[in-house]
Design goal:
Layout: H1 8-11, E1 13-14, E2 27-28, H2 31-39, E3 47-53, E4 55-56, E5 68-69, H3 73-93, E6 100-107, H4 114-129, E7 131-141, H5 148-157, E8 161-167, H6 171-177, H7 183-195, E9 200-207, H8 214-226, E10 231-236, H9 258-274, E11 278-280, E12 284-286, H10 291-298, E13 302-304, E14 307-309, E15 315-319, E16 324-327, E17 331-335, H11 339-347, E18 353-358, H12 361-376, E19 378-380, H13 386-401, E20 405-407, E21 411-414, H14 422-427, E22 441-442
Parallel strand pairs: 3-6, 3-15, 4-5, 6-7, 7-8, 8-9, 9-10
Antiparallel strand pairs: 1-22, 2-18, 10-12, 11-12, 13-14, 15-16, 16-17, 17-18, 19-21, 20-21
Helix pairs in contact: 3-4, 3-11, 4-5, 8-9
Keywords: 4Fe-4S, Cytoplasm, Iron, Iron-sulfur, Metal-binding, Oxidoreductase, Porphyrin biosynthesis, S-adenosyl-L-methionine
GO cellular component, one term: cytoplasm
Protein name: Coproporphyrinogen-III oxidase
Length: 444
């Protein structure tokens, strides 16, 4: 029997590795340079779009996203109009390409655009970009901001997948995080979607929340199973009040410790795997026939700013305030995060790029290593430059000694016991870790 992984690994703070280099290492990036990157897109390249809608009707205290609380119809309408104009400006800047393979609306709460706003947005996207027939069109939904009118608009827009933020179904935990949504509300919204033909439904749940127990995490996982979720993401709460001051509403002393977080994550996995879901990567689970489960089995799973994904497009274009995109051959680009400045730039006819990072050949190589480790829990060392392998072996050796991974001259493989700590393995390939001002969330 293998010995337990030292608890110190769960205490460390590390990037989530949804990009490499990671966002703390981005710097100023101008519109002209970004347009040059766009010009390098090839005719055979499919594209993906991420659209950020930053508005929420109320503030969830756990949230780490770029959001703003508003009920101003005028403010939301102006943002929606600017988002449509940005789509038009971006489409004009693109060379010939192979069409849009994926669209993801995130936030915030995208449904705050309203039924008319959602219809107008997708009408613009189809008119300007050329969405492929087989494209996945996905949206993140807050069950509290879903009604039958919104669902009808999503169906008209051609949405194929929806992700519900469930977090925890226990009312006591919900009150501690400022997000009360009864089980019946979630179930009703999911039923509306299925009745409208939107049958691919994901549930996002969390562990490590204030006052949360392993039993409550298990109950939420069972609820996801009972509701027939195709995918379940089990995210660890990231307490980063130095980045998100509203998280100070959550008392640090109410948070589970590192060992409790581990137990909660393992409890969720036990429930979901016992129900027939396939464990995928660090924190996802899917029914065996789901495209994500198939991608995990055949080695084509990817990782981007939305986490684990089946999207294989080499170009991800970000639209909306603060959104981040990436062009595999060139680098990462982030829009102006300030809503008013973003709107003003778009209305002036500018592509509102403000930050980013060009990638080098070494960055691309290390990004490949990190992505395969995060997605496959394995890496073919024989296919890598010997100098890179020699450079990371000293960092890998302690992880091997502690049972997190197995090493041969040609192969790195994360052990079953070490999978929860895969970010430590990925970090061995990060040449920038420890440099700059970046602070990160708990590794488990």
């Amino acid at each position: 029997m293998s010995r337990p992984i030292p608890i110190g690994y769960a205490l460390a703070n590390l990037p989530r590795y949804t990009s490499y280099p990671t966002a703390p290492h981005f710097g100023p990036l101008g519109e002209a340079e970004y347009r040059g990157w766009l010009a390098g897109i090839r005719p055979e390249d499919p594209l993906s779009l991420y659209l950020h809608i930053p508005f929420c009707r109320s503030l969830c205290w756990y949230c780490g996203c770029h959001t703003a609380v508003t009920r101003s119809a005028e403010r939301i309408a102006r943002y929606g109009a600017a988002l449509r104009k940005e789509a038009s400006l971006l489409a004009e800047a693109l060379p010939e390409h192979a069409g849009i393979a994926s669209v993801h609306l995130g936030g915030g709460t995208p449904s705050t655009l309203g039924a008319a706003g959602l219809r107008a947005l997708f009408t613009e996207l189809r008119a300007t970009f050329g969405i492929r027939r087989d494209a996945e069109l996905a949206i993140e939904l807050d069950p509290r901001v879903v009604d039958e009118e919104i669902v009808a608009a999503l169906a008209d827009a051609g949405i194929t997948r929806a992700s519900f933020g469930v977090q925890d179904i226990d009312p006591a935990v919900q009150r501690r995080i400022g997000r009360v949504q009864p089980e019946e509300m979630v179930a009703r919204a999911a039923a509306w979607l299925r009745a409208a033909g939107i049958t691919a439904i994901n549930f996002d749940m969390m562990y490590g929340l204030p006052g949360q127990s392993a039993a409550q995490v298990a109950a939420t996982a069972r609820f996801a199973v009972e509701q027939g979720a195709d995918r379940v993401a089990v995210f660890g709460y990231a307490h980063v009040p130095w980045m998100k001051p509203h998280q100070n509403a959550i008392r640090t002393e109410d948070l589970p410790g590192a060992l409790e977080r581990l137990q909660q994550a393992e409890t969720a996995e036990q429930v979901l795997v016992a129900a027939g879901y396939q464990a995928i990567g660090l924190d996802h689970f899917a029914k065996p026939g789901d495209p994500m489960a198939i991608a995990a089995r055949d080695g084509t799973l990817r990782r981007n700013f939305q986490g684990y994904t089946t999207d294989a497009a080499p170009v991800l274009l970000g639209l909306g305030a603060s959104s981040i995109g990436g062009i595999e051959a060139a680098g990462y680009a982030q829009n102006e995060p300030n809503e008013r400045r973003w709107v003003a730039a778009v209305e002036a006819g500018e592509l509102p790029i403000r930050r980013g990072r060009a990638v080098t050949a070494e960055d691309r190589l290390r990004r490949h290593c990190i992505e395969r480790v995060m997605c496959d829990f394995a890496l073919d060392l024989a296919a890598l430059p010997p100098a890179l392998v020699a450079g990371v072996r000293p960092a890998l050796a302690p992880l091997e000694a502690d049972g997190i991974l197995d090493l041969t001259p040609d192969l790195l493989r994360v052990t079953a016991a070490g999978r929860r700590h895969v970010r430590h393995v990925a970090a061995c390939f990060d040449a920038y870790l420890g440099t700059g001002a970046g602070r990160h969330s708990a590794a488990v």
